[in-house]
């Protein structure tokens, strides 16, 4: 069932449309190719005036099933018969909600809601006519812009009329692109199917049969995809229910499955139950959908009770509406003279005629009935109509009206309410839809209600049909479903077999290739799970009992059906990490070159000449080599690359640190020679001695690398220890001692340079390079101290990435800390690039 809701223009009184139609006839499926007069379902309606009129469309009557369904070929209609008391209760739930809202001073203050309720008789054309009547004002005239020939359109979408449903659970309606104006206060059937699948799996029912309505309601995809096998699927049609019920009963009788899932309307399954009763099939366990799990018509039928005892069902969440029972009991035709539906109900239930009080009423034409005395009353009467102990669908109607009212309240709160009411026809439907999406209210149970897109958050009751001493069935609550969580009290269930044991209905197909048989404990041998083979294992036969492990250099494919060679994995120039590191290395080399050019251009300035400009150029050259040596680590390892990368790394960094060490010694020597008696100190640290020192320090590293690479060099090797689809190709360190000596020597020079620079940091000069060296060496040491544990713990190709990162980080640290301040002065503060400024204290 569905609900339309919109504020329309340009009528003087905007109408908020709330339309309810039968579950089996959702308006989304109606398409027209031309205009035609279908006839009228009748003029009966229920109306209450107000500032804003809420329109409701309910299936209050039904037509006998023998009526032909092709309405376009019928010149006239048979009259509606059979007042549906449940739908009547839904209608009064709407009326009660409107009256309750009008009494609420905090919701829509100063605004009175009214309603207009129509009966569609449970048929497509009449539902459409009534809906168009509420939308456009005339049910008997085709609207040409909606129904123009040659244009198949969904009826309500072109108008952007917000549609709120309290019983339309079709999953298709969740498609926001097709139904952007649709909302509902009942969960989608997708969630119901998942709940039924959860219940079946919880009770170990993996082999079941299914009977389903042959329409949008009978969807079984979610059941089949959740680990439940269906032995058979029997569709039933409303138009051919007698024949379909016999066929379904024969199938159930012959099937091996002992659990039958039924996704159909209660009138359809009743026919199936009656056929099963004729065949004395009483040992099946039925799993019910919400469409029939709470049907009073089935529960009170003695014949049905012989077949359907122990039914487990998913039901719409039961909720209470405070004051609703008193409202229903106070209903009386005398107090509601315009309510033709109430008069019809009154005459039927009390078997009396109201023709003397309402002589012109078509529902009061039963001359054979005695006249009503006026003393008839629903007060104190036990009747299903006034039973509000378990309100389910009626509560959805109640909730839908409140959702509409809160959306309207939110819309009116956006501006001055009184001014807004004077021009209410200016409200657009899409504005109301925006506020519907934001509805967030608290239910009488203290639960939060809101729309998930167009849907309602899933919540169900789990019920069980249990026999009473009178032979009928009663409904017992045994659990609930909230979202994906299922709560079940198995000890409270009365099973169809009459015992305390859960009925067994299990079976499994043979496991396909890529899986293995896993027998379940305490269950028959034929009942098993198909477990996918683990990574690195395969099974290439159907029904394999075990999975075979692949050889060391092979790995299983995605389907676990064959062993394939493991892919080689290394840090390459094509992947994101390799590109990032390459970009950082090349950028560092370019920046170093740019600094070199700046220093070369300003080589005659005091700042460049200070502390031996030759050392600065040599330091820049060594930094460039440091940046470029990191590129050797990227790419597939080979014999030459494994040897060259460590040598290039060790020698480049020793050259760089040696330059810094000598510069630090020169700074100390210059300031020490300024003291009395130390004038000859600088002759031991002239340019020749500086170049010689750098050459000596570097040659020591060259000797260490030569010995290491000649005795036990790194070699490319595949790491087969890590089990996975990829095998890492890396440069294996044959001699950890050699690599440790290379790092240790760099660390020795760095620590010495840091110590000397720290001692020289407070020497009196306006520009003391020792401070820059101190900070740069702190960063350098911090990077390489962190490098050791990261290098040891990194897996596969990330070992190489960690070493490259350490190289780049330390190189950038040296470049920026030492040369960034100098370039700043040279390029942006040339007035400070003077000997006087540099020598100032």
From TrEMBL:
InterPro entries: ANF_lig-bd_rcpt (IPR001828), GPCR_3 (IPR000337), GPCR_3_9-Cys_dom (IPR011500), GPCR_3_9-Cys_sf (IPR038550), GPCR_3_C (IPR017978), GPCR_3_Ca_sens_rcpt-rel (IPR000068), GPCR_3_CS (IPR017979), GPCR_3_vmron_rcpt_2 (IPR004073). GO terms for cellular component: plasma membrane. GO terms for molecular function: G protein-coupled receptor activity. The chain crosses the membrane at residues 577-602, 614-635, 647-671, 692-711, 736-760, 772-792, 804-828. It is found in: Cell membrane. Keywords: Cell membrane, G-protein coupled receptor, Glycoprotein, Membrane, Receptor, Signal, Transducer, Transmembrane, Transmembrane helix. It is a multi-pass membrane protein. Gene3D superfamilies: 3.40.50.2300, GPCR, family 3, nine cysteines domain. PROSITE patterns: G_PROTEIN_RECEP_F3_3, G_PROTEIN_RECEP_F3_4. It holds the Pfam family 7tm_3. Residues 577-841 form the G-protein coupled receptors family 3 profile domain. Belongs to the G-protein coupled receptor 3 family. This is Olfactory receptor C family, r1.
């Amino acid at each position: 069932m569905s609900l339309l809701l919109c504020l329309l223009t340009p009528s003087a009184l905007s109408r908020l449309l709330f339309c309810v139609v039968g579950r089996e006839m959702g308006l989304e499926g109606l398409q027209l190719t031309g205009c035609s007069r279908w006839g009228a379902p009748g003029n009966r309606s229920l109306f209450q005036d107000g500032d804003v009129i809420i329109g409701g469309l309910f299936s209050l009557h039904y037509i006998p099933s023998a009526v032909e369904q092709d309405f376009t070929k019928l010149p006239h209609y048979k009259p509606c018969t059979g007042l549906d008391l449940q739908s009547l209760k839904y209608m009064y739930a709407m009326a009660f909600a409107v009256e309750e809202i009008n009494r609420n001073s905090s919701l829509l203050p100063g605004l009175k809601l009214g309603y207009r309720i129509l009966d569609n008789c449970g048929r497509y054309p009449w539902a459409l006519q009534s809906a168009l009547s509420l939308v456009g004002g005339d049910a008997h005239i085709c609207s040409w812009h909606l129904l123009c020939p040659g244009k198949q359109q969904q009826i309500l979408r072109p108008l952007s009329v917000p549609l709120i449903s309290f019983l339309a659970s079709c999953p298709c309606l969740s498609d926001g692109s097709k139904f952007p104006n649709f909302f509902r206060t009942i969960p989608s059937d997708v969630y119901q199917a998942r709940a039924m699948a959860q219940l079946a799996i919880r009770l170990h029912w993996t082999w079941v049969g299914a009977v389903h309505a042959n329409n949008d309601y009978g969807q079984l995809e979610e059941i089949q995809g959740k680990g439940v096998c269906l032995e058979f699927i029997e569709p039933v049609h409303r138009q051919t229910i007698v024949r379909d019920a016999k066929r379904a009963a024969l199938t159930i009788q012959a099937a091996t499955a002992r659990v039958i899932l039924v996704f159909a309307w209660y009138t359809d399954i009743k026919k199936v139950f009656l056929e099963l009763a004729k065949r004395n099939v009483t040992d099946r366990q039925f799993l019910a959908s919400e469409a029939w799990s709470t049907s009073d018509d089935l529960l009170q039928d003695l014949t049905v009770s012989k077949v359907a005892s122990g039914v487990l069902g998913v039901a719409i969440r039961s909720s209470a509406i405070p004051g609703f029972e008193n409202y229903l009991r106070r209903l009386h035709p005398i107090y509601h003279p315009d309510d033709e539906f109430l008069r019809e109900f009154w005459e039927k239930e009390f078997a009396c005629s109201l023709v003397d009080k309402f002589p012109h009423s078509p529902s009061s034409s039963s001359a054979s009935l005695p006249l009503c005395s006026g003393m008839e009353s629903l007060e104190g009467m036990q009747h299903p109509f006034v039973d509000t102990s378990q309100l389910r669908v009626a509560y959805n109607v109640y909730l839908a009206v409140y959702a509409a009212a809160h959306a309207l309240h939110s819309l009116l709160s956006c501006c001055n309410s009184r001014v807004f009411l004077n021009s209410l026809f200016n409200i657009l439907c899409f504005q109301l839809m925006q506020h519907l999406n934001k509805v967030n209210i608290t239910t009488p149970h203290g639960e939060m209600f809101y729309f998930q897109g167009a849907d309602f958050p899933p919540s169900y009751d789990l019920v069980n049909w249990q026999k009473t001493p009178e032979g009928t069935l009663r409904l017992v609550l045994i659990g609930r479903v909230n979202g994906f969580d299922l709560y079940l009290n198995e000890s409270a269930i009365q099973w169809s077999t009459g015992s305390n044991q859960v009925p067994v209905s299990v079976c499994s197909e043979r496991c396909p290739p890529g899986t293995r048989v896993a027998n379940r404990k305490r269950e028959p041998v034929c009942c098993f799970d198909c477990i996918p083979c683990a990574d690195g294992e395969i099974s290439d036969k159907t029904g394999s009992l075990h999975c075979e492990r692949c050889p060391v250099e092979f790995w299983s494919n995605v389907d676990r059906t064959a062993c394939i060679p493991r892919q080689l994995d290394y840090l390459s120039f094509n992947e994101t990490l390799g590109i990032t590191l390459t970009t950082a290395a090349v950028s560092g080399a370019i920046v170093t070159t740019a600094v070199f050019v700046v220093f070369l251009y300003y080589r005659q300035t005091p700042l460049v000449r200070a502390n031996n400009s030759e050392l600065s150029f040599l330091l820049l050259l060594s930094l460039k080599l440091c940046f470029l040596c990191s590129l050797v680590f990227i790419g597939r390892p080979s014999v030459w690359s494994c040897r060259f990368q460590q040598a290039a790394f060790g020698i480049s960094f020793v050259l760089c640190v040696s330059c810094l060490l000598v510069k630090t010694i020169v700074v100390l020597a210059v300031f020490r020679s300024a003291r009395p008696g130390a004038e000859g100190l600088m002759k031991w640290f002239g340019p020749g001695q500086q170049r010689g020192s750098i050459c000596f320090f570097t040659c020591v590293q060259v000797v260490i690398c030569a010995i290491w690479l000649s005795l036990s060099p790194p070699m490319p090797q595949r790491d087969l220890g890590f089990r996975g689809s990829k095998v890492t190709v890396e440069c294996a360190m044959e001699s950890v001692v050699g690599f440790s000596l290379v790092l240790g020597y760099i660390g020795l020079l760095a620590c010495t340079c840091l110590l000397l620079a720290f001692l020289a940091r407070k020497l009196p000069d306006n520009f003391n390079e020792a401070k820059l060296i101190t900070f740069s060496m702190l960063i350098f040491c911090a990077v390489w101290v962190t490098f050791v544990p990261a290098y040891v713990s990194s897996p596969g190709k990330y070992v190489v990435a960690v070493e490259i990162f350490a190289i780049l980080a330390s190189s950038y640290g040296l470049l920026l800390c030492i040369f960034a301040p100098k370039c700043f002065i040279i390029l942006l503060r040339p007035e400070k690039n003077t000997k006087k400024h540099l020598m100032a204290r």
